[in-house]
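Section: protein folds

Sequence with per-residue tokens
===
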Amino acid sequence: MKRREFLAAGGAGALAAALAACSRKPDEIPIEFVGYDPARAHALREPWRAPANLTQRKAEVLIVGGGMAGLSAAWWLAREARAQVTLLEMEPEIGGNARGLAEHPALSDPCALGAHYLPSPSREAVELRLLLADLGVIRGDPAKPQPDYDPRAVNFAPQERLWLAASGERGAGWQEGLLPLADPRSPTMAQYRKFGVLVERLMATGAFTMPSRLDVAALSPELRALDRTALADWLLAQGLDDPQLHWYVDYCCRDDYGVRAAEVSAFAGVAYFAARHGFHADPREEGRVGADNPTLTWPTGNGAVAQKMRAYIASRQASAIQTGCRVRRVFDTGRAVEVDCERIEAGQVTGVERWQAARVILATPARTLPFLVEACPAPWAAAAKSLSYAPWLTVNLGLSFVPGSTDGSPLAWDNVFKESLSLGYVNATHQSLHTRRTRTVWTWYRALAEQAPGVARKRLLDASARTWVDEAVVDIIRAHPAVGSALEGAVVSRFGHAMARPAPGVMLGGAVASLRVPVGRIALAHSDLAGYSVFEEAQRFGVRAARWALGAAAV
């Protein structure tokens, strides 16, 4: 079935039309939501009072939240073996935005539900390299300029490709790489090169690192001004107006931040390139840099890292991680911190516990602080109010065969459509060592960046799982006409508050900086403390909070 026929079918009927074309009914395709349960989290907004019959428990260091920051704090504490640690996670599984799915009846293979890769860490990311060494991802000395990685974790080729619609004499098809190719003598290439020079100059300042620098006062006025300007406006002010460059930069912002370039601060936008490996107009140079700095990925995405961390922690403190624990109240009495939590099984509260802890690390998004912390410190409450969050979702499509491309090109790991609101799809079986496959899973990513966050969130929660699967299939069919025929099941994961949006004024502003200061016996650990969401920031703040808990210098 052709894509224009899909679109003519309209809305949620498009999938039904595709299935009818191959004599199948929509009801035959199992589709459901998996992952985060919005109702479980939204209960935090409701008034709550602890019952009289509380079960009393104690911990030296209590961590609330089992995302990457909380797991990093627990990893460091378990590694140091100087304190007993307990981690409480509200969901049935740990991992946060990095959760994976090991198995599901509708899918033939494991897949990511959220974050699906990790850039090779820079030399500044000392603790992250140490973590990867502990987990066996880095082999040998993690301090080497170019560490030796487990080859199974290094992204196989071909890695990235971009689908371009037909234009002039050129037919629709895939190109290698995500930056639209340009003639070496074209105005587009001239702007690519100019942008590359600008990024290189900013890299030379040393201000852009991963994880980011926190000493804002040391930045020049020019650099601080970048955080007050939207990226798209800054590009225009530099004389960069090429549509191809703007599309690519916008795609990068939607992919990493869940926000369009017109709403991201120029500091955050520049950091995307300058804090990692720069911007390279020449695909050959990009390939060389990529070979020296490989992308790390697994079938379940960063969920594999989360599970490796869990196993490492459990090997040192067997009962440290406890899931199905919804924390409702955190109160610093001065002598200890009281943490009240509900035990949840099969969606029902089965008991309430009151933990007494000497130190507490809240590894939860800043937006939850006013709901969790009794007498929440005013700076924390103000910071929570200042942040907005980007909603996004993933759709994992279980396919009974690998649908070929209309141009006959081989499947890549990351497959992006230029004329699309989506972020494309990732082949979840790309890292498989099986040379011949019949069934597969494709993970389709969608940041709802074209609408205001509140509007997009409502749409995300109101739409059925089948509606999102329908949109994914309609998006992919432009390059793979048989995807509807191959579909045998799907799961949808929703992240209503996926990541803090690094809007102008956020990253270098005082609000998020206040979140980095512990109050009494409570410290925070989350990527929100950086004003944007990446693995490196979550891991850095988790380790810093763990050090604070052990009595090291203040976070």
Remarks:
- The longest strand covers residues 348-362.
- Confidence is low (pLDDT under 50) at residues 6-12.
